[in-house]
Amino acid sequence: MADDFDAIVVGAGMAGSSAALRLAKGGTNVLLLERGAEPGVKNLSGGILWGNDLAELLPNWQQEMPLERHLVRKRFGVLTAESAISFDFEDATWNRAPYVAHSVLRARTDAWLAHQAEAAGATLVSSVPVERLAWEGTTVRGVVQGGETMTAPVTILADGTNSRLALGTPIRPSPRLSEDATELGTKEVYRLDPKLLEARFGVGAGEGHAEEWVLGIYPPGVMAGGFLYTNRDTVSLGVIANLRSLFDAKVAAHDLVEQLKQHPAIARRIEGAELVEYGAKLISSGWASRPRAFHGDGWMVAGDAAGFVFSNGIVIQGMNYAIRTGIEAAETALAAREAHNASASRLGEYTRRLEDRGILADFRDFEGMDRVKWNPRFYTAYPKFATELFRGLFGESGGPKQHARRLVRRAQKAAGVPTTALLRDGWQTLQEL
Ligand SMILES: Cc1cc2nc3c(=O)[nH]c(=O)nc-3n(C[C@H](O)[C@H](O)[C@H](O)COP(=O)(O)OP(=O)(O)OC[C@H]3O[C@@H](n4cnc5c(N)ncnc54)[C@H](O)[C@@H]3O)c2cc1C
Questions:
Q1: pLDDT score recorded for residue 372
Q2: pLDDT tens, 354-389?
């Protein structure tokens, strides 16, 4: 019996819509299923989009997509209870078209991208929470929803982190994600008059400012980073925390942003702004979060569902990998259609493409990053050490002047940082970063 579609894509996020768009442009009868009432409503990013892979699908994406601001400056630093230590990176090349990165709000961008796929010929159906994959032995024959099976030779799983459809199947045999390799992102969006926003953040019209912080503001044991991104007339403020550390320290997730926004360095910049949106989402990043395989008989897995979020404490990038892996899955499905063969060996082209593009290396080569990133000293002892040191270096106590080496020793003592730990952690960070 003939299949209902040439390909089925589950999830209209960046990965799924990119895949469906490429498939539709390749003349494929593709079904794109989304559980949200509209693509994007369920999705959440910080979010800075390094989206130039989109140019392959939509050459004018920078003019047409509902983007917020193009990034001109990135600030990185450490917050402790009463201080902020940071450095800014500003690059004139970032302020020229084609821009390297944009702040985005996913409810807008994802709806737009999904509708581009629809305009190219994909069948987009929203409000459809796919219940499970239709397995026939080790082959995926399509998807099941509401007791109905929709079939296709190829199904692309792009249903994001914590993929319900993959967990407990040959794709991810374990029925749940590991708490150690999982982060929880919480985010609030504040409305701010664009002129006031530009004055507060020192940017011009259309220009954007991004900042990411190691957060030494929480009770000991909580390992978390914060972000603040400027949008057109809003500011996105959020925290990404190691899930295990929240359980262990018994800290409620909703307190994280609450505490961050009261920090003096943050509070004055969102003063008077109105909360308009909030959300939370899991992130399962890095090599440890990969599925058992990226392809099999009749299936491929792309984007967050495959663990393709690069997060090393300095950057978090997942949307670019979602777009790229969505495109690679679609290219593979097009070739499989041509060959009338969607077996695991044919769809192995997808994994080869991920390898050739250097995507797998991006994750494999940074496998040790989690060990560095989730070192409790980075969230308690080192922020305290840095604060003590900079108070000594930049301040004036009225007492005798101290050599920098004495200030370092004094800060180490105050923060309880032995030299051996400092050298070991510094060396390991240099190796893994
Ligand atoms: C707090 C936070 C900050 C982040 N910041 C950044 C950033 O600044 N830059 C960056 O590049 N990345 C960032 N990321 C990561 C980025 O959001 C993800 O990598 C990206 O969204 C992955 O896209 P995706 O299409 O794979 O998955 P998703 O965006 O999660 O999309 C999956 C889609 O599948 C749908 N779906 C799920 N299950 C089903 C089902 N059963 N049936 C039908 N549909 C289903 C969902 O509704 C959703 O639309 C951040 C993530 C978080 C949580």
A1: 84
A2: 999 999 999 999 988 888 888 999 999 999 999 999
Condensed to tens digits (0 to 9), the pLDDT of residues 297-324 reads 999 999 999 999 998 878 899 999 999 9
Q: Which pair of structure tokens corresponds to residue 423? A: 């050298």
Task: Give residue limits of the domains in the chain.
Answer: 7-69+100-177+287-370, 179-284, 380-432
Fold of 7-69+100-177+287-370: FAD/NAD(P)-binding domain (3.50.50)
Band (pLDDT 50/70/90 cuts) for residue 433 is confident
| Protein residue with its CA nearest to atom 1 in ligand 1 | 185
Q: Which atom of ligand 1 is nearest to the CA of 185?
A: 1
Query: From ligand 1's centre to the CA of 290, what distance in Å?
Result: 15
Q: Which of 32, 45, 150 for a ligand 1 pocket mutation test, highest count of atoms within 8 Å of Cβ?
A: 45
Neighbours of 313 (CB within 10 A): 20
Chain position carrying tokens 């209902």: 4
Report d(CA 280, CA 120) in Å as an integer. Answer: 32
CATH, domain range 179-284: 3.30.9.90
Query: pTM for the whole thing?
Result: 0.96
Terminal CA-CA length for the chain: 52
Answer yes or no: are the C-beta atoms of 424 and 374 closer than 8 Å: no
* Nearest partner of 160 among 52, 42, 53, judged by Cα: 42
